[in-house]
Amino acid sequence: MSSTLLDVRNLRVTATRHGSSFDIVDDVSFSVAQGEVLGLVGESGSGKSVTCRSLMRLLPGANLALTGGEILFDGRDFAKLSDRAIRAERGASIGMIFQNPASHLDPVMSIGDQVAEAIRTHRGVSSREAWAQAVDLLRQVGIPDPERRARGYAHEFSGGMRQRAMIAAALACDPKLLIADEPTTALDVTVQAQILRLLLDLRDRRGLAIILVTHDLGVVAQTCDSIAVMYGGRIVETGPKRAVLKAPCHPYTARLIACQPNHAVGGRLLPSIPGQPPVAGQMPPGCRFHPRCDLAVDECRAARPPLLQRAPDHLAACPVMAGVA
Ligand SMILES: Nc1ncnc2c1ncn2[C@@H]1O[C@H](COP(=O)(O)OP(=O)(O)OP(=O)(O)O)[C@@H](O)[C@H]1O
Ligand SMILES: [Mg+2]
Fold first, then answer.
1. Cystine design at 99: which of 42, 112, 133, 182 (Cβ 3.0–4.6 Å)?
2. Would residue 194 count as lying in a domain?
3. C-alpha dihedral over 36, 256, 217, 182, to 10 degrees?
4. What residues make up the domain containing 260?
5. Is 166 exposed, middle or buried (0-12, 13-18, 19+ CB in 10 A)?
6. Pseudo-torsion of CA 120, 7, 56, 200, nearest 10°?
7. CATH number of the domain that residue 238 is part of
8. How far apart are CA 110 and CA 156, in angstroms?
9. What is the pLDDT of residues 226-272, one digit of tens each?
10. How large is the average pLDDT for residues 142-171?
11. What's residue 323's pLDDT?
């Protein structure tokens, strides 16, 4: 794999509520190389979206703040840029697509105009040139008859076509990294497969790096090069996809894998992880997974387990399972 594009170190996002403050992203570190697809997985509420948004300093609430860490992108620290400077990087360095494209597309502006506007803002080309480039991008993301479809509106597009339009808008300024936050969850399986195929094509053609947020380890298995597993605002395991899926070194990862549909035999009900994920602001001490973990020992309750190296590039924050795999 080629050189590191994004290096996130000790990222911290703090929420303030009713006068108290707590971390919802706690000391998160990971990196993404050019052309790499990183899968960010974890149960609902584990902090995947907040982590992704913090990379562009687009936190989803006024009570949230980036309170620590570095976001090194191509050698510059996005955590330290001025508001004005980071605005220029959105779209140009990092593009983002969301789970529900309908709520991120403007209903009263044609699809072509929305993509063209993104191009014009960042590239300073004429309207005519921006429109031509927008049509070309819509073609590249697989929208049929793009000259005509560009004049259409979001409500005239199917879910899959809307997601393609979102991808075109996110790519308008030729970013090096695309953050895709559950881009296919709302789509049926066939369309989901087409969108994932498209993302991989874009990676191959443009050398695009991708952070793919998903609940679905099947998607990770098909699409990603590496995985970062989040639990309670922390990364508990990270490594090459094959290594993590084949020989997980954290009990939470092992449980997630056991809960995937392809492990269900003969249509039996899937096992789910007993207990509830922890709630932001009320995190248990030590390893945040310990109340749900069969392997937990006193050490796990007492202090946060450090990420231990299990193999080259494979880290896991479990002192117990570390001896097993
Ligand atoms: N503005 C806010 N104030 C306080 N807590 C917040 C705020 N926004 C998000 N959170 C909390 O931060 C945690 C992480 O949220 P986030 O949306 O990143 O989870 P997620 O992993 O993306 O979940 P999902 O899979 O459901 O999308 C959650 O516990 C959430 O309740
Ligand atoms: Mg989310």
1. 182
2. no
3. -80
4. 4-93+179-186+213-264+271-323
5. buried
6. 60
7. 3.40.50.300
8. 10
9. 999 999 999 999 999 999 999 999 999 999 998 887 654 555 556 67
10. 93
11. 53
CA distance 280 to 317: 19
Task: DSSP letter for 104, please.
Answer: G
Q: What is the DSSP string of 10-28?
A: EEEEEEEETTEEEEEEEEE
Residue 42 lies in a domain: yes
**Number of helices and strands (H, E) in the chain?**
11, 12
HSE at residue 66, side-chain half, CA atoms within 13 A, is: 25
Predicted local confidence at residue 266, as pLDDT:
57
| Residue 232 CA to ligand 1 centre (angstroms) | 10
DSSP 227: E
Convert the pLDDT of each residue in 293-319 to its tens digit. Answer: 999 999 999 999 999 999 999 999 999
Domain count, the chain: 1
Spacing, Cα 47 to ligand 1 middle (Å): 5
For ligand 1, residues with CB inside 6 Å are 15, 17, 24, 42, 44-50, 60-61, 63-64, 280
Assess if residue 54 is contained within a domain.
yes
Distance CA 261, CA 161 (A): 27
> What is the CB-side half-sphere exposure of residue 36 using CA atoms within 13 A?
22
Rounded to the nearest angstrom, the distance between the alpha carbon of 205 and the centre of ligand 2 is 28
Do residues 117 and 111 lie in contact, with contact meaning Cβ atoms separated by under 8 Å?
A: no
Q: From ligand 1's centre to the CA of 135, what distance in Å?
A: 36
Q: Kindly report the number of other CB atoms within 10 A of residue 274's CB atom.
A: 10
N-terminal to C-terminal alpha carbon distance within the chain: 25
Ion ligand 2 — residues with CB under 5 Å? 48-49
pLDDT reported for residue 324: 47
